Amino acid sequence: MALLTTILLLWSITIAATTAPVKSLQQLLADADADVPRPPSYTPLPPSLDPWYRAPTTYDWTLTDPGTVLKIRRAPLLNLTVGNALLAYQLLYRSTDSSYNPSWDVTTLFIPRWQARCSASTPALCAHALLSYQLPYDTCNVDASPSFGLHFGEPYGEIADALGLGWFVAVPDYEGPLASYAAGVQAGHATLDGVRAVLQVAGFFGLRMDRAKVALWGYSGGALASEWAAELSVQYAPKMKLAGVALGGLTPNVTSVTEYLNRREGAGLIPQGLMGIATQHPDAYRWIVSRLKPAFRARFLSVRQMTAAQAIGAFMYQDIYGYFVGGYRDLHTRVMQMMYNVDGYMGYHGVPRMPLFIYNAIHDELSDIRDVDELVDRFCGVGANILYHRNTVGTHTQELINGRGRGFVWLRSVLDGSYDSIYSSMGCTIQNVTYNLAPWVGWG
Ligand SMILES: *[C@@H]1O[C@H](CO)[C@@H](O)[C@H](O)[C@H]1NC(C)=O
Ligand SMILES: *[C@@H]1O[C@H](CO)[C@@H](O)[C@H](O)[C@H]1NC(C)=O
Ligand SMILES: *[C@@H]1O[C@H](CO)[C@@H](O)[C@H](O)[C@H]1NC(C)=O
């Protein structure tokens, strides 16, 4: 694969300008390529057991800039379990948690099969788009992080489709090392720093850094991470240029989602969300555990070992407030509200500067469409550029499928630069639409 010299030059300058880790990027990559575990004897370990999922100990990584690549390794099986991938690498990078303390996250970078044709003499065949795809993993179990879970295949086929379009695709474990499901600030930072990290190495794989465009995409839990990245970027990554962000099935208000889900099919997402968001708020975590009825405590806490689908199965239609000594009130004390205020309400941290495509089922049963309407109004009132599709048919899970095609068409326009000629690049366009493509699909 071609190494474009101009890009190399650029990167050496960037590296020199930041607090240099002990190893240069070139060296980290060379080490990763020299030390590829050989399938089939190689079995990936879940993050809780894999020592690679630790920050470096040989230097003070907390002094590096957010997005600095701290570790790189090849993921030699992911190009088999995810379609259209030539190679896959994993990067461990410096980020910032919900309390604005240094932390780290992991992202998986997929290089599209098409990139095999890219060389210094055929620059026109080299990729010029990066999609950061936030997978909805919706669990406070770190072993369900995508960097590990993708070894069992991808749930929705969207990574393979994006790679099939010739895009580089990065899939961050945006919940971080504590699996902080539903913690907005953590997820937004992890997503933005994942892009920064990938952009540091993508040039080595022939991504056309001179014209590369970057977009974010996520549905449901993935939209949570993407939306927080979009609104936090103004402050946290002011120099990062994002061409656009596509958001489906939004959950703008964590407390309203909790009320909506209780006693419903997806009630199991409440214990997942509470335990996840509270990993960023130790006082609230201790409070939650202390208020669980002793007879139910172990059952409630067992979500930390479950995937989203398992939790949905285990808690279906249950009254989650009933697990608490003080019921509903226990989830709305001061310590809990402080947590929600920091990590649970979209729309208060900044106005996205890049175009947004938002698609949502009007009859979404996980999140009230009125919360999404309100978020859109709030952003539109202060100059955002949004195309908002309210689908008259379908449930939350169906809209994932109903919206996918429109998501791809929109993302392609922002990534290939045709956006302005197809969509309105000023103000907001709000439409009631009817797309009914999805078969009935249940949870999981
Ligand atoms: C997957 O990647 C490995 C190296 O990590 C490579 O040896 C193998 O040929 C790749 N497989 C495919 C199908 O591209
Ligand atoms: C979130 O939803 C709750 C419950 O519906 C509501 O009382 C609260 O005002 C909402 N908060 C924000 C910030 O929109
Ligand atoms: C969409 O439909 C709702 C009724 O469900 C209506 O109140 C609203 O005005 C419509 N919006 C547009 C943009 O047509």
TrEMBL record:
<dbReference type="GO" id="GO:0016042">
    <property type="term" value="P:lipid catabolic process"/>
</dbReference>
<dbReference type="InterPro" id="IPR029058">
    <property type="entry name" value="AB_hydrolase_fold"/>
</dbReference>
<dbReference type="InterPro" id="IPR005152">
    <property type="entry name" value="Lipase_secreted"/>
</dbReference>
<dbReference type="GO" id="GO:0004806">
    <property type="term" value="F:triacylglycerol lipase activity"/>
</dbReference>
<protein>
    <submittedName>
        <fullName>Secretory lipase-domain-containing protein</fullName>
    </submittedName>
</protein>
<keyword id="KW-0732">Signal</keyword>
<dbReference type="Pfam" id="PF03583">
    <property type="entry name" value="LIP"/>
</dbReference>
<feature type="signal peptide">
    <location>
        <begin position="1"/>
        <end position="16"/>
    </location>
</feature>
<keyword id="KW-0378">Hydrolase</keyword>
